[in-house]
Amino acid sequence: MLGQLTIGSLLIVTTVFVHGVTLELVLKALLRMPQEWEVRWRAVVFSVVVLTVFAAHVVEIWIWAAFYRFIKEIHSLEAALYFSTSSFTTVGYGDLVLTPEWRLMGALESANGMMLFGWSTAFIFEVVRRSYRRLYHVA
């Protein structure tokens, strides 16, 4: 169990780092963007932000899936991605399960996904909120 917690923690640190770097890059791009663009192309800007954050989640899911393949716990890439996606999104269908030796990893991945989806939601909400505040000149 200690090994699973250690490895799971390392995977969580890795995905949190990927997420943090992605959000920082998005934020820097938004701060450099001329205000006219933000006003004129608001829907496009919001869409790019959401799609970029979604891409970060995809990379994070692939990191977990690659781990499952590396330890030979799941024997095909498609199945590893399926299990990882259902775990990361906390859907957890249960039609594909890990052996008792590694089953804690699925729970850790779910906690990781829930945390990162929450962070993403807060980030996107703040981007939209600040944009509308700037548009309507609200303090």
How would you describe this protein?
- With 139 residues, the chain is mainly alpha-helical.
- The protein has a single domain, classed as Helix Hairpins, CATH 1.10.287.
- It is 79% helix and 0% strand.
- α1 (2-32) packs antiparallel against α3 (42-70), α1 (2-32) runs parallel beside α5 and α3 (42-70) packs across α4.
- The longest helix is centred in the last third of the chain and has 32 residues, at 104-135.
- The mean pLDDT is 93.
Features:
5 helices; mainly alpha
Radius of gyration based on Cα positions: 18 Å
The CATH class assignment is Mainly Alpha
Structural class: mainly alpha
Which bin fits the share of residues in helices? over 70%
Given the structure, what is the number of helices?
Answer: 5
Model regions low in confidence, pLDDT < 50 over at least 5 residues: none
